[in-house]
Model the fold of this input.
Amino acid sequence: MPLKRLFVAFLLVTSAASHASDTFTLSNPPGPHGVGFKLIQQYDRSRLYKADIDLATGDKVEGERARPVQTLLWYPAVRGGKPLSYRHYLETAATEDAFTLDAAEVKRLTDARIESNAGSRREAVLREMAGAMRAVRDARPVEGKFPVVIYAPSYSANAMENADLCEYLASQGYIVLSSASIGARTRSMTVDLEGAEAQAADIAYLIGFAATLPQADTARVGVVGFSWGGLANVFAAAKDARIKALVSLDGSLRYWSKLVDGGKEAAQYVTPARVTVPLLYLGARPRTVEEHMRMPNKVVYSFMNEMKYSDVYIASFQPMRHASFSSFAMRTVPDDWFGDYTRAEVSVAHSWAARYTRHFLDAYLKDDAAGRAFLNNSPAANGAPPRMLSLDVRRKTDAVPPTLESFVRRLAQEGFDKSVDSYARFTSLYPGFKLSEDELFSWGLELLNRGDCVRAREIFRLGAQLYPDKAFLVEGLAEMQAKTGQKEQALANYRRVLAIDPQHADAAKYVKAHAP
Done:
């Protein structure tokens, strides 16, 4: 080769290597499927988003006020077609709660965002924005049914924040949906219960929407959440039994524990007993004790330590800081942000986090033997770089959480006629479990409304046993005994009602009509 051509070739190779070192790459090979992408602009009309005035300006709000849930959808598709650029994903951020913006305004907002993130890496960031991704807009779906993954972004973040992970999962045979992290009433998220519950409700909405997709198997649903989204997905799982697996990317479940610790600021329904699905927690480099003590929001409670009703995997990635779990951040942060590591080294760690996410979901949503083997292996046995991550595996130690659902299941097995004894045995195993008088009355009433007076009688019997001074429970028992032919017992219990409440008209009427 002539010297001049050799020199040009050398420049091209070194230039490519230089560009590779300052740009982000998800190094995991894609799965067997192509990736399709759709942008869906829809509203959750069961929730109001905008007040009648703009909360920033005070101006009267015109037009749609329902909650916007702009949805990014990735799905397994036939290979082929022109892939999206990363900029195409970034453009979706402009319309997350403003569906009517025109193309010129979307371009202006996107250009401004790129410039605000470029800094000293402007050329590299521009290359990132122009880079080709894996997804093809509106690609033809492949045949079949696939598990559903909801991606919940970090605090106030955009739905495209981890587009690389979403594409990767879609290529591996998942339907992936994401919507932005938006507060209950404003585009900005709020760090409180209202904010967490708003994002959890968005997750529930997306699961419901997934049921309308021909490819989606909503019997197999997992939720992946980053940072604040890694708290909101736990809130969602506490209410929604459709969720079968959780992944937390350095989630706020750890850092905002006061919202789940049972205290006065916490959501009382978010308990380890109600979050019984397997959890994979992928954490950043652990803080030293001294670093932790300097934090304004010190962690004093670990929800994961109490999760004895589910399998929990905690992986700690030494090269990664909190924002390293966002592929958007990996593309835009300055070179000196990575500390003792290079962008390329942290990109490898980020890719391994995505790999663990995929194998965890395979194990628990697809019942995949290879996924389970991957989780049970040491990181070294899986081929992870030395000293990159450590894994703490905690198997569930109790298969039966102390919940109403567990008690109802046990009662159905043992027989409703054993309700008093079953409850005594259940509460001896789980002293914290308790059914309130209102819960028991509502349960008995539900059975009565279904025409099941025999089982209603046994629930009211339990209620009258637990709360003997509550006339409405004793009356419920007496009424059900009368309806099921237990006349003498009914009379005795109507007399008990009168002893509690001498002015009880229905009890007095029954006693007068049936007393010897």
